[in-house]
Amino acid sequence: MSELLNWFWSNPTRATGVTAYGVALACCIWAWSRAKGDSAKSQLAALLAVCEGCLLLDMAFNLRWSLHQMFMDEAQTLAVYASRRGPQALALLVLVGVFLFGLWMASQRFHGRVGALLAVSGALLSIALWCTEVVSLHQVDHILYRSIGSLFTVSFLWIIACTLTSVGVLIESKRPRKDARSTPA
């Protein structure tokens, strides 16, 4: 067991990702537990908890790289691996469009709810990063996996995304209910 823990935490990038997504998941669960009787807060916190939990599992077990490997193996089987750069670039372009559209939709849906918008923006960034890693275009990987000290650039992006989600869901959890009635003191 000790060897497994040493192996797991010996990779600072993975340890950073697991920690960041673990904190984000804990914040989402805490916000979910506080949302009793407020379905809007409860549903958002639950959805974010599921998202952050899936990303935490992915981070712990490198599932995105297994999926990437599956795509590479299939491309080699179909003898199209050598021409993968064009489709990868197109996939990333579509991903950027979907990400920007998602941010716009979130800004419309959560207008006036800064916490919810921050939380959803962080989750969208996390999902976009996950998809970017699965696509794994060499030129983008060169940026994401550039060392900054003992971490890669992508580690700092995970921290930013998880911080947005964590802070946002906590702000949202403290927002008064829209239908809350004030009681005399």
Q: Can you tell me about this structure?
A:
With 185 residues, the protein is an all-alpha fold. The chain has one domain (2-174). It is 78% helix and 2% strand. It has helices at residues 2-9, 12-34, 39-61, 63-77, 85-109, 114-135, 138-144, 153-174, and strands at 147-148, 151-152. Strands 1-2 form a two-stranded antiparallel sheet. Helix 2 runs parallel beside helix 8 (153-174), helix 3 (39-61) packs parallel to helix 6 (114-135) and helix 4 (63-77) packs parallel to helix 6. Residues 180-185 have low confidence and may be disordered.
Short description:
This protein is mainly α. The chain contains eight helices and two strands, in the order αααααααββα.
Question: Keyphrases for this structure?
Answer:
single chain; 185 residues; mainly alpha; two-stranded antiparallel sheet; 8 helices; 2 strands; globular
Topology:
Blueprint: H1 2-9, H2 12-34, H3 39-61, H4 63-77, H5 85-109, H6 114-135, H7 138-144, E1 147-148, E2 151-152, H8 153-174
Antiparallel strand pairs: 1-2
Helix pairs in contact: 2-3, 2-8, 3-6, 3-8, 4-6, 5-6, 6-8
